[in-house]
Structures are given as structure tokens and as C-alpha cells.
Amino acid sequence: MTFATSTLKRLNELQHQHKQAILVEEFISGKEIVTCFLGNQNTLNCMEIVEVFNEDDDNYLTTNFTS
Predict the structure, then answer these.
(1) What 3-state class would DSSP assign to 17?
(2) Are 63 and 50 in contact (CB under 8 A)?
(3) Is residue 49 within 8 Å of 35, Cβ to Cβ?
(4) What is the model's pTM?
(5) Cβ distance 33 to 51 under 8 Å?
(6) What are phi and psi of 2, to 5 degrees?
(7) Of the candidates 59, 52, 57, 44, the residue with the CA atom closest to the CA atom of residue 28
(8) How many Å is the Cα radius of gyration of the chain?
(9) Is-contact 35 46, C-beta < 8 A?
(10) How would you classify the pairing of strands 44-51 and 33-39?
(11) What is the pLDDT of residues 24-67, one digit of tens each?
């Protein structure tokens, strides 16, 4: 069984088990930033930008930016 075939099989199993959509993302190395937006068609506000904290790395800092 190829990697693609086994991955699709596992995704189908998860979707059947949880009865909802599955989101698959590509891993990109580097800092992870999470943003929160609030708004509608007319206005969009960036509420917060957060750099994800890694508890296993003592030299890693958490940075929060709020508007």
C-alpha cells in the first residue's frame, strides 16, 4: 500500500468515526503564528496575533500582540 493510499484510507476512517470534515495541513518548519479575526463583509478586525509557545524549549518566548 502506498503512502497516499494509506493516508486516504486513514482520512476516510477518521471522517466516518467523527462524522465531520477533516482538515489536513502541510507542516512548514519555523515559528507558528495564530491570528484571530472578527468581522463581516464590511469590516474585518485583527483581534490578536499570538506566537505559539513551545513548553519543551526553555529559550522559546511567547509573544502576544493585541490591537
Answers:
(1) helix
(2) yes
(3) yes
(4) 0.42
(5) yes
(6) -75, 165
(7) 52
(8) 18
(9) yes
(10) antiparallel
(11) 888 888 888 888 899 998 999 988 888 877 666 665 555 555 54
Q: What is the pLDDT of residues 2-20, one digit of tens each?
A: 888 998 999 999 999 999 8
Please, which residues have CB within 8 angstroms of residue 47's CB and are 6 or more apart in sequence? Answer: 36, 37, 38, 66, 67
* The three grid cell numbers given for residue 45, joined into one nine-digit string: 478586525
Cell 467523527, located at residue = 18
In degrees and rounded to multiples of 5, residue 44 shows phi and psi of -140, 120
Residue 60 and residue 10: Cα distance in Å, rounded?
34
Q: Which of 32, 16, 15, 36 lies closest to 24 in space, CA to CA?
A: 15
Helix (H) or strand (E) holding 30: none
Task: Copy the grid coordinates of residue 12.
Answer: 476516510
Distance, CA of 43 to CA of 67 (rounded, Å): 15
